[in-house]
Amino acid sequence: MSESAEQRLQGRRILVAVSGGIAAYKTPDLVRRLRDEGAAVRVVMTQGAQAFITPLTLQAVSGHPVHHDLLDPAAEAAMGHIELAKWADLIVVAPASASTIARLAHGMADDLLTTLCLATAAPIYVAPAMNQQMWANPIVQENCARLTHYGFHVIPPASGSQACGDIGAGRMPEPLELREVVVAHFLNNTDQPLAQQHIVITAGPTREAIDPVRYLSNHSSGKMGFALAAAAQQLGAQVTLVAGPCQLATPAGVTRINVNSADDMLRAVMQHVPNASIFIGCAAVADYRPVQVASNKIKKDSDAMHIQLVKNPDILATVAALDKPPFTIGFAAETNDVLKYAQSKLERKGLNMIAANDVSDSSIGFNSDENAMVLIWRDSHAKMQQKQLPLASKTTIAEQILRHAAALIHS
Ligand code: C5P
Fold it and tell me: Which of 39, 83, 175, 246 has the maximal Cβ count within 10 Å?
């Protein structure tokens, strides 16, 4: 699938868990199909799985070393099992052997795969694959019922001829069918708290020209703003994404407007915000721009040079100050006294809500794929409230921010 085609799993983190069974030969294709849709995929294998297919194959198709040992200090140091359990937005066990199903159904954490499944908060899809007689065995059926009772999603196996020569139910669904199950999970159209809302989101850095070839800018990757755009679209909103220069694919169903400078960004926002019910200022807008942009490339003739700067317009504050402002959400990246500065920004810019994070922690913020935030707002009695969003993928954080905003708007 090309970069520009619609990628329905963009930004999603899928942990593919492989247990022992001949159907494991289909799992590398599942990994590829998930990645075709933009998902980041990590793989965990049981020992049994490695008798059917090698970790090297799955490393090659996933682009990451495969995890298989609970007690391997080197693997734990790279990405520990709890970290991996938190990393996943969704786990799919494919194939799930009768033994793995039994161990999951009884809460046994006797290898890495089962430990991860017990330690995660992510939804878990299980694709049983086994001989038709085994699948019909009441013990297996009871274990599957137990899994369903505990919130696992058991994907019914397909019927047909089996590797062992039998004919009946127990075949793992084809990779493309499994992928559609994963996609459907994230595109669950019944859960759309932002239906009827038009959201304008700014994202990425801005570039402030010095001359035709040079500019002032910052390290913003745009990942948080793009994650918000994707999540808003999936929660039912119509989304306009005003993006500074960044190398990210446009999320499916989102209208993207590319801009360079803060002035361009302000113009694009003011054009679209009159129709919007929510505005999210997520861009790292350059604070200043050169007073004059040289029309020709500046020569390095002198040992020192001075560029006079002027303050850029504050896009967020401008939107919040409109006569009929949309529900306005800002971000505050701080290195110290995070809550204090975020609260004063909320007041000073006249926002409905602010999402604050501590950028002195290099594992979160700017170029990272993860974030942790505190949401701050005033309730209907003008009392300051706050809610912690613990460390999670930017996709998950984006969804939490939007669900919270939807709840405030509908309250
Ligand atoms: O004042 P500060 O830059 O810390 O505020 C951050 C918030 O304000 C972010 O939501 C950012 O997108 C927005 N902002 C803006 N225009 C500016 C500066 C910041 O919209 N010129």
Answer: 39
